[in-house]
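Continuing from the previous page of notes. For each protein in this section, the sequence appears first, followed by its structure tokens. Read the first protein now.
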Amino acid sequence: MPPTTDLNYYAILTAMLAPAFFLTATAGLLTSANARLARVIDRGRALMRELEENEDAEDRAVIEQRISLQRTRSRMILRASQLLYVAISCFVGTSLSVAGDSFLGHRVAQLPTVLAVLGVLSMLAASVLLAREASHAVAAVNHEMDDAYAKANRRNRARQPRQ
């Protein structure tokens, strides 16, 4: 075996490391997205129970808005997860095409680069969606705190004797 062949294998393995690091990062984001989706689903179920038990029209309207926001959040997380799965596929494809390129006589020389770019773009888009979803989550919590505060003040004023 000529020494250049050993160098080719080393170059191939080295080129396959970058997609492996991206795979690890993507898997971490996917784990986070799945945990967030689980929290959104739990919150949505709690809101559905709250809606079922509540008869006040004003409260029901607020709860329905909260449910709508949870639906929006779940769709955003779903899209982000799908993009992360695309990224994983692209990074695996990058590794396979790097390995296969040298065996195929460099016939698919641009394929690893194209797949890597698609993977990174998918990861970027997913990260933007997850950032937007996090903003929605914070907004939802702030609205709920504001509503609870206003409701508590109304009850407190109703209990105080009039002078």
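Done with the first. The second protein uses the same format. Note its length before scrolling.
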Amino acid sequence: MEKLKWTKYIFGSKLEIKQGNEQIGKIQWENMLSSKAQAMINGKLFTLNREFFLSKLEIYDANDQSLLATVMVNMFNPRSNVVINGKRFELEIQNFWQSRWAWKFNGSEIITFTSNEFITKDKGEIELATLVNDEVEILILLGLFVRNQFILFMLLFIVVALFVIF
């Protein structure tokens, strides 16, 4: 099983993906709250986009702007589906704190994400139980993009709750 590492500063706009000490991918937002991002993995360029309230996330080929996949995320449902190249993949958030989530294909986990920290940095591992191909690269980027949106939603929720309390 191959392992990758990812790191993003909570108040930053860049997420890095590393294999060993080599950076193999990144997601770069215009700013921390931006709904659009540019991504790269294994030399391939992508554009990521989300609707304002997290419901729809999209990934495009950055070269020809063709839509590669769309995933609908429901904050109150731990499962979402996406179809890539005619294959259905399921995203499952596996705990309340969203520190473990996975992509499944035909009921088997093929990519598992874990998060290890939350204070000033969000970092973790990506375990691959399958060979890397175009679909897996897209799923890695979407999985990390979804995670970032959940973190932003949680931070927004905390700020609003504090505002209401005080």
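What the second structure shows: The first helix runs from residue 134 to 165. The chain has one domain: 2-165. We return to this in next week's lecture.
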